[in-house]
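INPUT
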Amino acid sequence: MPVTDRRILLVLALVLAAFPWGVRAVGAVSHYLDVMVFAGIFCIVNLGLSLLMGFAGQISLAQAAFFGIGAYSSGILTVQFAWNPWAAMPMGMVLAGLVAWLVGVPALRLKGHYLAMATLGFGVIVHIVFNEEVRWTGGPSGLVDIPGLSVAGTPLRGEIAWYYLVWGTVLVALVFCLNLLHSRVGRALRAIHQEEKAAEAMGIPTARYKVQVFVLSAALAALGGSFYTHYVAFLNPGSFDLMWSIRFMLMVMVGGMQSLWGAVLGTVLMTFVGNEWLQVFADYEVLVYGSILLGMALFLPDGLVSLKSIPVRGWLRTPRSSTEGTQR
Amino acid sequence: MDSAWLQYVFAGLTTGSIYALVAIGYNIIYNVTEIINFAQGEFVMLGGLLAVFFMEGCRLPLPLAFAAAVLAVGAIGLAMERFVIRQARNASVLSLIIITIAFSILLKGSAMFGWGKDPYRLEPFTAGGPLLFGGAALQPQALWVLGLTAVVVVLLSLFFRRSIYGKAMLACADNPNAARMVGVPVRTMVLLSFLLSAAIGAAAGVAITPISLMEYDRGALLGLKGFGAAVLGGLGQFSGALVAGLLLGLAEAFCAGYLSSGYKDAIALVLLLLALFFKPEGLFGSSEAAKLKRF
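OUTPUT
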């Protein structure tokens, strides 16, 4: 991991650690922390999506489906089979990864519009399954009384405990993804994004890498889904529909698809926008999302991180690593 | 039970015609621009809701309301090309996909703003009870839907074979640069393709509303199934789209009737995935030709 990324990571960790004290000064602590817990959960999903879209260049409109597979695996295993939530969580990730592999092997041979439609269709099918398998999922009326998480025997209560758990996980996932990007795999993914045929000619097994990133993004989405399940303790299919896949995509786009920092920035920003500032619009938030998505795609396709005028960049930039990471 | 299958055939052909019309809409734009317009389903939804508005809000007679709805949605299609797609002509495929998706949720959000979340109904084009055939009932409106589809298909094939505009559009599809060199105004043709495609979608929407009602959030699923028909029929082929649309409609109706009505929406999507995974060139396309396609 280059120095730039390490510095940003350090700053981010410090800011995150201090955040609860910061909001305590403003008041309404639990409320802001609650929004931040959701932002952290979505970050876990969007790190995977950023790897897939921004780095490997493969579109997915099925992230809400994988998020849902993780969520429902945790919900069903803990409610109906009385599993320990910590055991259900990896099961959800494995299941989502397996499904992603089964779908990904044929789907990722497709490109562009076809891949978008295939993942879109798959996402809608999964959503229909959540609605129809009433015996397992509770159908449209939902799954209730999902147990919370406990750490070392003590149940996790209050936003602050959740905040540290979720954002701790985000940081671990970030370190993992950053290391991945600066490894052989990461370089291969960028090569695939730029010119798939050339990458193949260089001996990169493009099909295998694309499927692996798809599986990883699905597993991360499922992990986010598990946290979501235990945090809100209630599931219904509405949280896993196409609109949510589009929202995940929007979060990644706003920050900047081709940067993991952008994914984190965009996710936090858009979660605050969605949970906080758009509440006045109620149902019409769709219009706002549509406008933001259209505006970003037309005028700022590389997201907020592509704005060069942020002053801290001077401090963060180190001469040697300026071609790596966020500077791409 | 014995005549149930005939009932399913009627239902399948009716919804199948709508999928075929949506698929034809995709094909027109794809042929000229190689863009898949993710807002295609929203045109159908808007057509239906605008017809309700013109008939009940403005008290227009049906033919006028039909024409007004088709023209209005056609204008939206024009605006989409002129102010959105043209802005992004140098964008990557990924950006273009996101742009048409963004436009589609804008249309959906606007429809919710204008009409709310309730489904709307429209009077059938002609009054009268269902016609009985061998123990199965056929709504007169279903005949209108089938008739409309037939008329659209015939007019389109005449348009593309006989008229200079149609030929120019096909030329753009073959090779935009070569078309530009022989004097085809490619930009106008692109604009025309969005107009045509939106208008056809709207016509389908008006025709189906008396049968299945219409609400603001129907567009995405209609669009997805219509895309399934377009792929099954071979992207860019009009006759293929027609056949595949009808087949999808039949598959869906029989699944709803004999297997599970809850999963009826899934069957068309499963077929779409199978087609994309194993036969992306479509039922009637050749795999060599498919390799040359760009998307």
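end of record. The two ends of chain A are 14 Å apart (CA to CA).
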